[in-house]
Design brief:
This protein has 145 residues and is mostly helical. The chain has helices spanning 2-25, 32-43, 68-73, 90-96, 127-138; strands at residues 99-101, 108-110.
């Protein structure tokens, strides 16, 4: 009777592991052009752009999100996109709320992104938008040339 119980547990554990592995493999691959770029265009590149025709905050904080090389280089605060690691990517942290960065003299707080327009309250990205950016970064942050 004990052998049957152990065998059942092992079989159950094997099925659980295989179903978990299958569901991880079934995760939708995030497409930069279809899923990420529209979010960046709508909410980010107004301030984080190479385009000199954009508002005065051209390249705010040194971060540019309309150029692949510049985006992966990051801004003045460091790497904003760390492929494969959304947890440590500053971009994700800033989309979720203000971030305090250790500075040599004092802690520096960077306001949550996207910043509100003059006279408006902060309007964060939706949870779904942040989740898709997080997923894109965790999947390696593929950004075609």
């Amino acid at each position: 009777m004990k052998i049957t119980s152990i065998a059942t547990m092992i079989l159950g554990l094997g099925l659980l592991m295989s179903s978990t592995h299958a569901s991880a493999g079934d995760e939708k691959k995030v497409d930069f052009a279809a899923d990420i770029q529209p979010i960046f265009k709508e909410s980010c590149v107004k301030c984080h752009s190479l385009d000199p025709k954009k508002p005065k905050k051209h390249g705010a904080g040194g971060l540019l999100l309309d150029d692949k090389a510049a985006a992966f280089k990051g801004g003045k605060a460091g790497k904003d996109i760390i492929p494969g690691n959304s947890k440590d990517s500053l971009l994700v942290k800033l989309l979720s709320g203000p971030v305090t960065l250790p500075d040599s003299e004092e802690d520096k707080e960077i306001k949550a992104m996207p910043k509100p327009k003059k006279g408006e309250k902060w309007k964060p990205l939706s949870d779904d938008q942040i989740a898709i950016i997080r997923q894109w970064i965790d999947q390696g942050a593929n950004w075609p040339d």
